[in-house]
Amino acid sequence: QRTHHLCIYKPRLTELDTHNRLLRFKNFDVALINKGILLPKLYLAISGDM
């Protein structure tokens, strides 16, 4: 399992901190797709990756 080093200024992370971190990664993916750097990928539970 990979570990990520986070810059944390609080003694404890809240649910909001976790949500914001995940949303930041999602927004980064969307920006790369919009720039044409990353190809969009659709996952369907029935058929797998497309």
Automatic annotation (TrEMBL):
Transmembrane segments: none annotated. GO terms for cellular component: phagophore assembly site membrane. InterPro entries: Autophagy-rel_prot_9 (IPR007241). Keywords: Autophagy, Lipid transport, Membrane, Transmembrane, Transmembrane helix, Transport. It is found in: Preautophagosomal structure membrane. It is a multi-pass membrane protein. Coiled coil: none annotated. It comes from the Eukaryota. Pfam families: ATG9 (PF04109). GO terms for biological process: autophagy; lipid transport. Phospholipid scramblase involved in autophagy. Cycles between the preautophagosomal structure/phagophore assembly site (PAS) and the cytoplasmic vesicle pool and supplies membrane for the growing autophagosome. Lipid scramblase activity plays a key role in preautophagosomal structure/phagophore assembly by distributing the phospholipids that arrive through ATG2 from the cytoplasmic to the luminal leaflet of the bilayer, thereby driving autophagosomal membrane expansion. Belongs to the ATG9 family. This is Autophagy-related protein 9.
